[in-house]
Amino acid sequence: MSTERRRHVDGGTPVAIAVKMHATRGRGLRPVFSQMGSIFSKIIDDDNILGLRFHAIPPPGKCQYWACTLQCLCDDDTKSIIRPLGCLTGPGELLNTDLDINEFFNNNDVLFNEFARLVERGSFDPLLRHLHKIKQLTGLEYGPMIALDAHTQGSDQWTKGVCDETVLIIHEH
Length: 173
What we know:
Blueprint: E1 2-9, E2 13-20, H1 29-47, E3 53-55, E4 63-73, E5 80-89, H2 101-121, H3 125-138, E6 145-153, H4 157-162, E7 165-171
Antiparallel strand pairs: 1-2, 3-5, 4-5, 4-6, 6-7
Helix pairs in contact: 1-3
C-alpha cells in the first residue's frame, strides 16, 4: 500500500511525501507518532535537562530554539515521513536572545554533550523503544530517527542561514 500527500514548502513548491508499506503494516502508526512528542517532553521534564522547556511550536520573540522532528526515511530520497514533535528553549544564555552566532554554536555543543550523557545513562530508552516499534510497523529498511535541529527565531535571513545546524540524531543501533 502506498500513501501520498502533497504539501507546499519554500515558496509554495508542491512536494510529494509518500510512504510505501505493506497493507497489514502501518496500522497503528498514528498513535505511536502522537506519543513520541509526549515521551520526548517527559524525558526533558523528568531529567530537567539544562532547564530546557518543551513547546509545541517555536516560541515568539528573538531566541535560539531546537526543533525536534521524527523522520522515517524510505528506500529512496524522495519518500519519507517527517513529523514535528515540538521545540526546546533554554534559560539564560541558552535562550540566546542577542542571537550571538558564537553563543549559538556553543549552546549546541552544551546541548549535545548533555544529550550524549543522558543517552549513555539510558534516559532515552523509552524513545528508542518507540522508534523500534515504528520500524516494525512500517517495515522500513532504515530505522526512524529523531533529529534535533538548532534555529533562531526573530533574526534576519543571513543569521537564519548561518545559525542552522543539526545538533544530533537519535536512532536505534
